[in-house]
Write a structure and sequence with these properties.
Keywords: ATP-binding, Nucleotide-binding, Transport. This is ABC transporter domain-containing protein. GO terms for molecular function: ATP binding; ATP hydrolysis activity. InterPro entries: AAA+_ATPase (IPR003593), ABC_transporter-like_ATP-bd (IPR003439), ABC_transporter_ATP-binding (IPR050763), P-loop_NTPase (IPR027417). By secondary structure, this protein is an alpha/beta fold. The chain folds into two domains: about 200 residues, 3-Layer(aba) Sandwich (Rossmann fold), CATH 3.40.50; about 70 residues, Alpha-Beta Plaits (2-Layer Sandwich). Helices cover about 40% and strands about 30% of the residues. The protein is built from twelve helices and 13 strands. The strands form three sheets. It has a six-stranded mixed beta sheet with strand order 5-6-7-3-8-9, sandwiched between helices. A four-stranded antiparallel beta sheet has the order 11-12-10-13. The chain has a three-stranded antiparallel beta sheet with strand order 2-1-4. Helix 4 packs parallel to helix 6 and helix 5 runs antiparallel to helix 6. The radius of gyration is 25 Å and the shape is globular. It starts with a strand and ends with a helix. The relative contact order is 0.13. The structure holds adenosine-5'-triphosphate. Adenosine-5'-triphosphate (ATP) binds next to strand 1, strand 2 and helix 2.
Length: about 325
């Protein structure tokens, strides 16, 4: 079932520009100079139920703008958007009850109150029945394992603990579609891992559809089964993560260990990543692996060990993004 359908959507921001200095500011009061920023350009996208889509791109690529269009916080300049059959910008209560947006850089919890107070308020906002609220809260509190934090003032929670509570607050109404904008921003590696596990478990157990943006590649490789890459507002890649790996995992990392190691000359040298007297690591294209192994064994008769590894997907994705941004 199609949950999200975006057809030829663009979003322009118009910003007022003033010249520098007091003179410029005064001039700006009478004559306004506007500049148009094309944040999203002619994007089409279809997301099916239960899909987890990783939205990637450099700073300013248009990811947050696209998420805001999908949640109805912004109105598209042109094109059409349908989420669960609704036009998001109408912000109908039935629509809002079925979606959520979590922004890693924005707090929704009351700073001076314990999380349970914010949860109770969310119950009222979403008009969740007592029975449903009791069930949902119990489920989420167990899933995120935060029972002992429910009554601690939010200002006294660590960033990771607060993020868990933020997520619970955003999931209390059990939304069908979840938009996550940098959900692990600023968290240490252990908390990032924990948050990913919880999101994964919630999504699997509740058949949710997710779009997630993150600059932490591991959020994407751990959670997403499809990636969409934006560059300066345009969609430049859209495929499953496994297809991406097939298309881009074109090298292997080969490490050779030997006493008094002799490295290979000529073109092989360009593939050498690092070496010392006992060890050399190469990045070899898949089609040259067997030739490389033959040649390195021919010049080193006493090889002690040979390790052939796939280049990790995180590195491939980072390399691709680095290239796409340039
Ligand atoms: N409210 C706004 N008014 C004017 N321009 C904006 C506004 N919000 C975003 N932009 C501009 O639109 C473009 C896309 O921004 P957006 O925040 O969508 O990118 P992003 O991919 O989410 O970036 P980041 O990874 O840094 O969060 C940028 O050039 C940005 O400066």
């Amino acid at each position: 079932m199609v949950v999200i359908k975006v057809e030829r959507v663009s979003k322009e921001y118009r910003i007022k520009q003033t010249e520098p200095g007091i003179k410029g500011a005064l001039k700006g009061l009478f004559y306004s100079n506007t500049k148009t920023i094309q944040a999203v350009k002619d994007i089409s996208l279809t997301v099916n139920e239960k899909e987890i889509v990783g939205l990637l791109g450099a700073n300013g690529a248009g990811k947050t703008t696209l998420l805001k269009l999908l949640t109805g916080l912004l109105y598209p300049t042109c094109g059409t958007i349908s989420v669960l059959g609704y036009r998001p910008f109408e912000r109908l209560p039935e629509f809002k009850k079925q979606i959520t947006m979590v922004m890693g850089n924005k707090n929704q919890l009351w700073w001076d109150l314990p999380p349970i107070e914010s949860f109770n308020l969310t119950k009222e906002i979403y008009q969740i029945s007592n029975k449903e609220y009791k069930h949902n809260l119990e489920y989420l509190v167990n899933l995120f394992n935060i029972e002992d934090l429910l009554n601690t003032q939010v200002r006294n929670l660590s960033l990771g603990q607060r993020m868990k509570c933020e997520l619970i607050n955003s999931l209390l109404h059990f939304p069908k579609v979840i938009f996550l904008d940098e959900p692990t921003l600023g968290l240490d590696i252990i908390s990032q891992k924990m948050i990913r596990q919880f999101i994964k478990k919630y999504v699997q157990e509740n058949n949710a559809t997710v779009i997630i943006t993150s600059h932490y590649i591991q959020d994407i490789t751990n959670l997403a089964d499809r990636i969409v890459i934006l560059n300066q507002g345009e969609k430049i890649y859209d495929n499953s993560l496994s297809e991406f790996i097939k298309e881009h995992q074109l090298y292997k990392k080969v490490t050779v260990f030997a006493k008094k190691l002799r490295i290979l000359p000529d073109t092989w040298n360009e593939m050498l990543l690092e070496s010392d007297v006992f060890k050399a690591t190469y990045k070899i294209p898949n089609q040259l692996i067997s030739r490389f192994l033959q040649e390195i064994s021919a010049v080193n008769t006493q090889i002690e060990n040979l390790v052939v590894e796939d280049v990790p997907i995180d590195n491939i994705l980072e390399e691709y993004l680095g290239r796409a941004y340039n």
